[in-house]
Amino acid sequence: MNLKQYLETTISAVLHKITGETNCPALVNYAKDPRFGDYQANGVMALAKRLGRNPRELGAEVLNHLTLAPVVCKLELAGPGFINLFIDPEFLTATLNKMDQAQLVARADNPQTIVIDYSSPNLAKEMHVGHLRGTIIGDAIARTLTYLGHKVIRHNHFGDWGTQFGMLITYMQELPGGADLHNELANLEVFYRAAKQRFDAEPDFGERARENVVRLQAGDPDCLAKWESFIKVSIAHCQELYAHLDITLTEKDIVPESFYNDRLEAVIISLTEKNLLTESAGARCVFLDGFVTREGDPQPLIVQKSDGGYLYATTDLAAIGYRCKELLADRVLYVVDARQSMHFQQVFATAKLAGYAGPDNTLEHVSYGTMMGKDGKPFKTRSGDTIKLVDLCDESIERAFTLVSSKNPDLDEVERQHISALVGVAAVKYADLSKNRNSDYAFDWDSMLSFDGNTAPYLLYAYARIRSIFRKAALAPEAHFNINISVPDEQALALKLIQFAEIVELLAETCLPNQLCLYLYELAGTFMKFYESCPVLKAEGAERESRLGLCQLTARTLKQGLELLGITTLEQM
Ligand code: ARG
User: What 3-state class would DSSP assign to 294?
Assistant: First the structure.
């Protein structure tokens, strides 16, 4: 149990004991001002109100029954009934000295099987900035859950099936004689656009494209071969980007839409058996209470078109069955754009009704907002095209190179290139991760590459700076130091370090990486304050050793935290 959980459970138990009430959370949170303690319990007031009792009186009674030693050294009742909690410095000392070298946060007591569906672009087109957020956020969540010891199954639910491929196959079939397919596919974006142009302009091309979809679904060898050659190129392109961005998705994680093809018919059969299907204009639909269109009409979830074709939703229903019943997932996370929220609500509700997911399988849409340009409109190039991810990464690295060169002109060029390759990617990732994913996000080069504020360069620099202390003192990074907390700035840093576990566990629950970013930023700030007021290398004896220990633990925490976010630290910047 982490410190916050310990306080929450212990105080809640006392509230229960005194009042006999069952639902009485202590509502423990961080204190805003260190003068009023390190944590605050706010639950007394709500409970007193519920019971019609005087909150200060109830608070006093709670204090009489509460034993939090040796963790808490001082408790006080404040204002209308808050309980202020001061953590004992000796407890901090003991905890820090016990922090295991292998892992800063304990593994989960009850590891779960968690499927996480993220990135999942459509393969018909090249990946563009619209896929960046889901890829980066999903990867941070996957890394964190893995770190906590859960069994994490990454699913890249590539869109590799459906009408767009009929169009692409037809375009391939009708390339002029002598055209080299390999060359044609060198630029997927151009290829897709050319195919789309024909599709839009020539009605009979469109007709042939639709026929090819049917052929493809029926397993026609030529269509399949063309489809496969296209998919192969497109996947290679995605994997290259993942490598470039240090995303942990591998080819083994690809479980695309086509994987579910031979399970779709069974979905229709079982929905029919369960009386969940309604026919509407020839299509088969699921109508559920509570889902209405903007006009107030019932909103169907269409699972089979009138021509027999299956849809995106059908595949998602089959995928839920696979994930919950075969992979035995306790939790399935969908890191997907907020614009699909209605789709997921309908699919989840249908899956529960149909029994594809049981009561113990949690299905969560981890949604995120749109990436905007500085002008507040969806992020585009100057000519109005969507920005390709490769270009975005290249530009970030270039900008980082200029930045690093201006900060550190004496460093040799190879070294500067190495640093900027990491900083460029880190800046793009961190800028996204540090914002609440539920909001739209404004992309802005200047702020993401700034050395001030809650940015990747700031944190990477803070880390490198601590490492330089150890270089200066010629100490091995893994040397053991005995910590002994005495002054307030040491104490503040110690407490912050212990809270890493609370934040990582919270992230695993809420899937909000911005909480970890904020923590790391605050940790770096708390460290700077300590470093300014407490001499380290100039201190002597046990004090020097203890402060080196705090530096070391801060560096380890920053490195680990950034790693969970998918960011690699640098020893020198
Ligand atoms: N391919 C979809 C898109 O680009 C996202 C898929 C998300 N995952 C899912 N199981 N529906 O919009």
Answer: coil
